[in-house]
Amino acid sequence: MMQENMEPLEVADLLGRNVKEVIRLASRGYLPGRKVGDQWRFSRTEITHWIEDQLHAYTEEELTRLEGPPLHEGAEALLSLYLPLSCVAVPLQSRSKPGLLRELVELAEQSGHVYQPEAILAAIEQRESLASTALPVGVAFPHPHRPLPQSLGDSVVAFGRSLSGIPFGSERGALTDLFFLVCGQDSAIHLRLLARLSRLLLIPGFLDELRLRETPKEAHRFIITSEADLIGE
Question: N or C: which end of the chain has fewer CB within 10 A?
């Protein structure tokens, strides 16, 4: 299990920056951290949340660096590992944010890896209460504020599309119709999954093409194929 407290070198490795830059960002209040004596210490949860808030502005290179090296030899198709067809719904039925979050958790349960759905739902609702995960382009990435390994048998991603879109807290009141629920067993896989999904969003026309898929099977195939093209498999 990963330690909650991180040293500057660990943060530097995670962010793809050097230690001096990490300390400079922390000392200026840009990066969440605290000094213990003459040493900087960082909370893994706070750093993860900080990265989540920055992801929408990351470049392809920064997102790739955040993913880190593959866990296995060769390119790693994360979504084909953690997004089964059973966890895809087109269309979603809910017309409200609370109902949609519950529907997504129920969808994730189809993976067989969700042991405590109510705990996961509560964690997702808490995260959304801090700040909406919806982006102006009509997609949202709801997820727990911190990993809940005791509630999961393995990491799970669920995807659903609402035909009409719903108010989900996006800037300027834009409706959200595409939802990727991300439940990572630890902060490392959590960030890898968010980075991979963010890279897909940078593909010209990806969201528009995804909206044209009319069945779960079509949507799932498109997501998995797009990821394979992205990583060159």
Answer: N
pLDDT in tens, the chain (233 residues): 567 889 999 988 888 788 999 999 999 998 999 998 889 999 988 898 888 888 888 999 989 888 877 666 555 889 999 999 999 999 999 999 999 999 999 999 999 999 999 999 999 999 999 989 999 999 999 999 888 989 999 999 999 999 989 999 998 889 999 999 999 998 889 999 999 999 999 999 999 999 999 999 999 999 999 999 999 86
> Is domain 5-57 in CATH 3.40.50.720, yes or no?
no
Beta strand ranges found along the chain (DSSP E)? 5-6, 34-36, 39-43, 88-89, 139-140, 156-167, 175-183
What pTM does this model have?
0.89
Q: Which CATH superfamily is domain 78-231 in?
A: Mannitol-specific EII; Chain A (3.40.930.10)
Structure tokens at 109: 């349960």
All CATH 1.10.1660.10 domain ranges in the chain, comma separated: 5-57
CATH 3.40.930.10 domain position(s) in the chain: 78-231
